[in-house]
Structure formats: structure tokens, C-alpha cells
Specification:
Helices cover about 40% and strands about 10% of the residues. It has one domain. It has 4 helices and 4 strands. It has about 110 residues and is α+β, with helices and mostly antiparallel strands. Strand 3 and strand 4 form a beta hairpin. Strands 1-2 form a two-stranded antiparallel ribbon. Strands 3-4 form a two-stranded antiparallel ribbon. It is globular.
């Protein structure tokens, strides 16, 4: 989605995903970079994805052209959340908390 997407647009996109309606387009390079960076530290496939200490409640992650859906284990360490937030900010991606519907846009960057 565009960096200026309104929170409701993010929630609407999630509702389309839940219905199985995914855009047929090339993957957003930012989403690919997010997935690659996150799963290089916290694999979502293979034996480490389901081993004790894995942050994932459900693996593999749902990956589409414009989003990654992550279901975190209840005992997920804070460092995992901090990594997700840092990567999303670095790549200018919104985060949607499905528990309460809150959309966390990337932080504003200071002009250089």
C-alpha cells in the first residue's frame, strides 16, 4: 500500500485478504525485504519454525504481494516485536494489530 494509506484502507485490505482476495501483481520489494530480513532471524519454515522458542504461533507465515501476516506465540519475547517494528519502520511499512484493529504507520522521518 502507499505510505500515505489511511488506517481504514489498511483494515479494508486485511478484510480482502481474509476473504482470500489478493492482488495479482508483482511483490512489493519492501514486503519481500521485510520477509527476508525477518525470517533470516526467525525462520518460518523447517525445524526451527516449530522448535521451542520460535515466535510463531502459526508457520509458515502468510506472504502475499503486498503484505505478510504473522501470528505470534503468546510468549513471544519483546525483542521479536521490536525487530518487527524496526524493520517495518526501515522499509516504510504499516503494521496492523489484528487483536484490536490498530494501524501503526511508519514513524515520520526527519528531513535530511
Amino acid at each position: 500500500m502507499a505510505p500515505s494509506s489511511a488506517p481504514e484502507a489498511v483494515r479494508d485490505a486485511n478484510a480482502r485478504c481474509a476473504r482470500g482476495d489478493h492482488p495479482q501483481r508483482p511483490a512489493d520489494p519492501r514486503v519481500v525485504a521485510f520477509y527476508d530480513a525477518l525470517t533470516s532471524t526467525y525462520p518460518d519454515r523447517g525445524p526451527r519454525a516449530t522448535a521451542p522458542g520460535s515466535p510463531w504461533a502459526s508457520a509458515p507465515l502468510h506472504a502475499a504481494a503486498d503484505h505478510i501476516q504473522m501470528r505470534l506465540d503468546e510468549g513471544c519475547p519483546d525483542v521479536v516485536l521490536e525487530t518487527i517494528e524496526r524493520l517495518a519502520a526501515e522499509l516504510n511499512l504499516d503494521l496492523l494489530d489484528l487483536q484490536d484493529g490498530t494501524v501503526y504507520p511508519p514513524p515520520l522521518r526527519a528531513a535530511s
